[in-house]
Amino acid sequence: MVRLLTLLLPLGLASAGQMLTTRDQSVGTSRNLIVGAPGQILSYSFDGKVFANHANVTEAGTSASWMIFKYPNLLYAVDENSNSTRVFNFNPVDSTLSAEPVSAANGSSGVVSLAFDKNQTHLVGASYSQGQVDVWDISPTDGSLKLLKQVPLPGPTGPAAAQAVHRAHQAVLDPTGQFFAIADLGGDAIHFLDTSSWEITSSAVVKPAGAGPRHGAFIGGEDMCLPKYYVVACELKSLIILYELSQTDDGKMELKNPQTLSTYGDAFPPANATSAAAGELIASHNERDIYVSNRLTGNATDSISHFVVKDGKLQFADQISSGGSIPRQLSFSTEESFVFGTNQGGDSGLVAFQRNMGDGTLSALAALSNSEISAQGTNLGPQFVQEIPMYTHQIPAQWVDGVPQWGNVQG
Ligand SMILES: *[C@@H]1O[C@H](CO)[C@@H](O)[C@H](O)[C@H]1NC(C)=O
Ligand SMILES: *[C@@H]1O[C@H](CO)[C@@H](O)[C@H](O)[C@H]1NC(C)=O
Ligand SMILES: *[C@@H]1O[C@H](CO)[C@@H](O)[C@H](O)[C@H]1NC(C)=O
Ligand SMILES: *[C@@H]1O[C@H](CO)[C@@H](O)[C@H](O)[C@H]1NC(C)=O
Ligand SMILES: *[C@@H]1O[C@H](CO)[C@@H](O)[C@H](O)[C@H]1NC(C)=O
Ligand SMILES: *[C@@H]1O[C@H](CO)[C@@H](O)[C@H](O)[C@H]1NC(C)=O
């Protein structure tokens, strides 16, 4: 049963110039958020204080635990409970969502994250259940999907119970657009998928055995320049590992000189180290700040740890409560002045933190109760949140020393 509930955003269409000025100052602008929760895809506006629901597509049994948006109107959503990737129409200007998918197709089962290639003609899905990645041709503008290739992850699997099979957890594109780094939670490895052949051309082993790499990010890099580092959060042993990235003469990617820390600072060990499981990792464009979510800590609430890379050294900086439990995912606002998060359990489901642009510390800003997100039972709160700016010119054209640079508005 699919149902649509739409309220129009109370936003007048300000001129492009005004929009740009407001976003540039980055305070007080209303933002669109897309939220995935079990059985629901929701959109909210957020004015810095209050989350207001605008659209709601409900389909029992589905789980849109990852979504990605392609301008002007295509929202791609996984269903981690089936083989299906669905495409909805989403209009970021008025925050409306189509009641039914405009297209859907079956690939691997249990896909838990999606990423575009650089020109957004291909979509890569990471399958946790089948330990492979799906490569979709998404070049048609009508939103149709064509399964181009399924790439199984190579190599041995790890020693932990969750590692009986390979598990592709996330594919992230490097800033040059040359390859995706695929975190293999089952195989204790990072695999590099080349976008010119759609083949895995190199793999790096993650140690210690049983670490379970889950989500990672590149640090640095731009169009013509490889990133300096790749950093990954390992779920099973709650570790964060920073690697130097390099490329051999024959084009293979290498991860070197690992620096490994607990995802908890020395002062904040989890109450239950057995259940503790790192979740999300996001890295700022300032090439310094990294945030990792700590789930199932056994403490009253779970947490988000802040790390910094300083003179090439990975260091724990500080930690803050996630406001609830099982903070599965985190994302930056467009200009990185907020961090949004989702707690699958506890009272606060959808949370926003103010990010101090100077030292990178987070402070709690706003929260929406899981009861208001219609969490249908214990730990069935939201799994995913992402800001979708109304217009492409509200996405920084580039970053200089961690400061967003805004493009010129055409017309
Ligand atoms: C995907 O597979 C399921 C189960 O076999 C089927 O019911 C569904 O129609 C398929 N979806 C598409 C879009 O082909
Ligand atoms: C759908 O998922 C099942 C495993 O649940 C798998 O055997 C099958 O090959 C998948 N279908 C496609 C098109 O990949
Ligand atoms: C887009 O990028 C892919 C590689 O990611 C490449 O195969 C394709 O040719 C490119 N298409 C265009 C139109 O540039
Ligand atoms: C979590 O519990 C452990 C053990 O009681 C404690 O040492 C730690 O400081 C707690 N963490 C937080 C953030 O309160
Ligand atoms: C710690 O977590 C493990 C694994 O989930 C669980 O079996 C155990 O009961 C927990 N311990 C406490 C004290 O809650
Ligand atoms: C979304 O719609 C479903 C079905 O009508 C409803 O049960 C749920 O409360 C709605 N969620 C929100 C956040 O409004």
TrEMBL record:
Coiled-coil annotated spans: none
Family: Belongs to the cycloisomerase 2 family.
Alphabetized GO MF terms: 6-phosphogluconolactonase activity
Keyword Signal: yes
InterPro entries linked to this entry: Cycloisomerase_2 (IPR050282), Lactonase_7-beta_prop (IPR019405), WD40/YVTN_repeat-like_dom_sf (IPR015943)
Transmembrane stretches, start-end: none
Superkingdom to which the source organism belongs: Eukaryota
UniProt organism field: Neoarthrinium moseri
Keyword Iron-sulfur: no
Signal peptide: 1-16
Keywords, in A-Z order: Signal
Protein name: 6-phosphogluconolactonase
